[in-house]
Amino acid sequence: MSPSRFDRRTLIKSGLALAGGVAAMTAFPAVAEAYSWPSSLKSGSTGAAVKELQIRVAGWAADGPQQTYVSVDGDFGPGTTAALKRFQAANHLTANGIADADDFAALDALESADGSTAHFEWSEFMSKDGTGFGGGKVAEATVKENVRRLMYKLEALRLKAGGRSITISSGFRSIAHNQSVGGASNSMHVYGTAADAYVNGLSTRQVYVLAEACGFSGLERYTLSDAHQHVDSRVEYAYGSQSWWWESGTVS
Ligand code: ZN
Known about the structure:
The protein is of the alpha+beta class. The chain is 35% helix and 9% strand. It contains nine helices and five strands. It is globular, with a radius of gyration of 18 Å. The N and C termini lie far apart (51 Å). Zinc ion binds next to β2.
């Protein structure tokens, strides 16, 4: 087949799949359809495409430390406009808060063929006891969707960190695995909305500061033997309402 039929990230992903010895090769590589965006989305737009846009710009919730987030509600309001403008500016696009073809291309470039994002793999977030995305406090499909949303926030964190690579030491945990590592019983790790991350070349404090503008409602630094930054999104179905836990408050 001609490489021109497939974009660069698809080829990269296929290469990784081969290198990783992934079985079940079929006649054609599994190429996810890029999201079917409308011609434009702007303030006042509503519906499923707005929801998808909100998921993808959620990591651009604020300019600086602020306990705020982009609601994934399909309603294109001021919060979505502001986050989109920040995404556009960071990606050298016209920062007008209106999503059109150039913006959708930039958003699509962040998506991998298997539905993960450009710089993260599903496997990095799977429970380390081998249950994949199963065995948590919500259904497997919900966990996977939560992980996908987490990945887009982490893509924003990565860009804010100057494109430094991010290593995930713990993503989703099954209830059993969470117990075995001594995690809190209401840990966001059992919902798939949390990650323990190291950003190459940055201290946990520096990561915490960057994460304060990425729409994360849970932030906790671990500075002892296993230094990492915990980030999460506290889901209402776990807490009953939107809640915040920024262990160190605002540090920047
Ligand atoms: Zn954690």
